Amino acid sequence: MRTLIRRVLPVFACVLIFTHLSAQSDKITQLEEQMRAASGPARAEKLIALADACLEVGQYDKAEDWANEAESWAKKMKAPELRAMAYNRYGRALALGGKRKAASKFESSLEILQDIKSSNKGLMLDNLENLKRLAQRSGREKDLAAVEAQIAKLNGTVVVSALPAAPTVSSSSPPPPPGVPFTRQELKQELNNAISKMASNAQASAEAQHKLLEQSEKLQSQLAEKQAALDTMSEREMKVNMVLMQQRFMLDSLGYRANMDSLAIANSNLALLEAKTSRNFYLAGILALILLAGGSLFSFARARQHAKVLGEKNAIIREEQVRSENLLLNILPALVAEELKKQGHTKARYFEDVSVLFADFVGFSKIAEKQTPQQLVSELDTCFQKFDEIIAKYGLEKIKTIGDAYMCAGGLPNGGGAQIRDMVNAALEMQAWLLQWNRERDHQGQPRYDARIGIHCGPVVAGVVGSKKFAFDIWGDTVNIAARVEQAGESGKVNISGAVYEAVKTQFEFKHRGKIAVKNKGEIDMYFLEN
Q1: Which of 14, 113, 275, 391 satisfies CB 3.0 to 4.6 Å to 118 for a cystine?
Q2: Is the pLDDT of residue 353 over 50?
Q3: Domain finish residue from 121, 156, 182
Q4: Where are the beta strands (DSSP E) in 375-521?
Q5: Is residue 135 in some structural domain?
Q6: Is the pLDDT of residue 190 over 70?
Q7: Is 529 within 8 Å of 427 (Cβ atoms)?
Q8: Cβ neighbourhood burial of 510 (10 Å; 0-12, 13-18, 19+)
Q9: Which three-class secondary structure state does DSSP give residue 511?
Q10: What does pTM read for this prediction?
Q11: CATH number of the domain within which 417 lies
Q12: CA 55 – CA 71 distance, rounded (Å)
């Protein structure tokens, strides 16, 4: 019996350990599920319970993680006592894992409990006991005495003298597993408990073995009785029994075979039905794929056709937009056109320094008498188109034409100052083109188009007035004086005012005409440009 107990006891102990570990693993899994579903302080409690479960099975790293997360969550929930419990588990995990800073966690737990004046004496004592063990292991006698004094104060006792320091434990030695005592008295008590448990387990195993032996003896007695009955049976009875047994066996075999055949038939029918179902499913799937592919192809073709039509329409719209923009820019300056598009109206602007040019054909009434209206308009169009080309070359702004008069300006929106030098160059080029064009007309016997050009500079007001048939125009004394300067000029020459002369006198050659009387303006200095 003792030999059997010795053999069975280790196996039984292994089974108990495996069962305990399996139960703990299931417990940890269950706690993790409960923790994920919890919120508020309850989540912190579940995290602390997870740390305890990991400490029981020796998973110290996981216990650190759960305790750290529990402390953070308790801090977020403003639950100081739960934070103290989390610091306590954190310190246990660090101490049992052989890591540093375990004492700081127990001290943090004590500080929190003292700050909130907690009545949880058990948690305070646990923190102090752990600090005491750590002080004993590291040989810190002063810390040990201070901790023992706190324990005595908490228990309501008085410490007469400090206890002798526990033997120093080498920092390189492996940390004790969870639940292992630190003192000899605790170790002795733990061993006595373990021996008692093993003895009780062995007694239970012996009782079970005794029950098995009793059942085995009963079976042996029943077999002996059966054997005695067979021995007393006659040979004929034995043959009859054998025949009956054979017939029964044959009947059982036939029934079994019939059942197997029916089962095989049912399986075949089931397989056939499954094959038909699978075939129908595959056919339906193929048909659905064909319909889907056809629908996708049709949708793609229609979408492509719509996209093509839409692209063509967008191209036409863009062309019309560009045409409208160009038409608007031919009528108004870019800045004014943009303001008109955005607001529907524009404000008049004051410009300090603008150059204004007027050009007028001499003897236009006599020319009109010799030509038909169509010829007259056609030749005016030829001249004005060339003038447009010239002022565009110099970045000037065409204002308007009035009969045979042509007006342009420099230094308006999108210009750069008065642009007087550009204006003078444009005037010279306009006269040069007219000179060449008139030579050709002289050879053809056609009337000449000689022009007077006058330039003045100064401040103007520019803008658009009215709400229909918008026209950009400029106003002010500068415009009036420019018109008077043009009227005081001569055919084929460029006449400028004294203000223009002062601006470009170093860049061109001039002929001073003196002061010339101007209607409503008195006398003005004027100069002819030397071509």
Answers
A1: 113
A2: yes
A3: 182
A4: 397-402, 405-410, 451-464, 472-475, 494-497, 510-518
A5: yes
A6: no
A7: yes
A8: middle
A9: strand
A10: 0.43
A11: 3.30.70.1230
A12: 16
Pairing assessment for the beta strands 349-361 and 405-410 based on DSSP bridges:
antiparallel
Determine the pLDDT at residue 84. 93
406: how many CB neighbours lie within 10 A of its CB?
25
Cα-atom radius of gyration of the chain, to the nearest Å?
58
Q: How confident is the model at residue 267 (pLDDT cuts 50, 70, 90)?
A: confident
Amino acid at the residue 519: K
Provide the residue range defining the domain that includes 159.
2-182
Please, what is the Cα angle at 167 between 165 and 153, to 5 degrees?
A: 30
User: pLDDT higher for 379 or 253?
Assistant: 379
Q: Using an 8 Å Cβ cutoff, are 526 and 498 in contact?
A: yes
469, 379 Cβ separation under 8 angstroms: no
Bridge pairing between strands 451-464 and 397-402: unpaired
Tell me if 432 is assigned to some domain: yes
Cα 2 to Cα 209: distance, rounded to the nearest angstrom? 12
**Which pLDDT tens digit goes with each residue over 99-121?**
888 899 999 999 999 999 888 98
> What are 194's two structure tokens?
């373990």
Cα dihedral 422, 529, 527, 414, rounded to 10, equals -10
In the chain, what is the greatest distance between 2 CA atoms, to the nearest angstrom?
172
Residue 63: give its domain's CATH number: 1.25.40.10
Question: Residue 390 falls within a domain, yes or no?
Answer: yes
Per-residue model confidence (pLDDT) at position 334: 65
Domain count, the chain: 2
Handedness of CA 415, 421, 425, 427 (dihedral sign): positive
Residue whose tokens read 């002929």: 511
| 525 inside domain | yes
Q: Which of 161, 182, 203 is the last residue of a domain?
A: 182
Could you report the per-residue pLDDT of 401-451, keeping only the tens digit for each? Answer: 999 999 999 988 655 567 899 999 999 999 999 999 999 999 998 999 999
Q: What are the residues facing 464 on neighbouring strands?
A: 472
N-term to C-term CA, the chain: 142
List of residues 6+ apart from 65 with CB closer than 8 A: none
- 3-state class (DSSP) for residue 98: coil
What is the rounded distance in angstroms from the CA atom of residue 384 to the CA atom of residue 323? Answer: 22
Say what the pLDDT of residue 10 is: 52
